[in-house]
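subagent[fold] <- orchestrator: predict structure for attached chain, return tokens only, no commentary.
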Amino acid sequence: MLQTFIHVQPEKFEDPGRTIKWVGGFLQKYAGAWHVQWERKAVAGQYPRSWTTYQNDIKLRFENKEARDVAYSKMGKITYQGCIQDMFTRIQTFNGKAQITGAALKKFILERLPIKILDQMHVVDLTGKSDQEMIDIITNAGKTAERWEEARENLLIKPYATKD
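subagent[fold] -> orchestrator:
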């Protein structure tokens, strides 16, 4: 929640020291004590007092590694089931914890796509695209493929007029 707030209002968090103190003010009990110790060591020069270092250290200390493994395992069971948006919703739900990015995320997604969506992407180069750009491109290709499939089914199901 705090990361979202910081991301939405970056002008209020240009000073890393101020940002770290602000976040530390929300931490309670053991996390609050950890924050105080972290600040002491940073001020003593044991490591940089930067927002990136702080984020990395707090994740390493408090992140539930088992939850990450469980989320990754559940992601591995995701398959395309007729709706690209549903597939991405399921992927993003688990990827919040699994945290797959870049080439690994691209490979993960592409391996799960049916040929009808891959055919829509035959001229698209995903090289150098951000994760979100890649997801947007694949979502558009998926929607197009799904519309084509729906149109094809409508033509096949359409009853022929007969004369009695």
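orchestrator: received. Logging for downstream: The mean pLDDT is 86. The chain has two domains: 2-63, 70-157.
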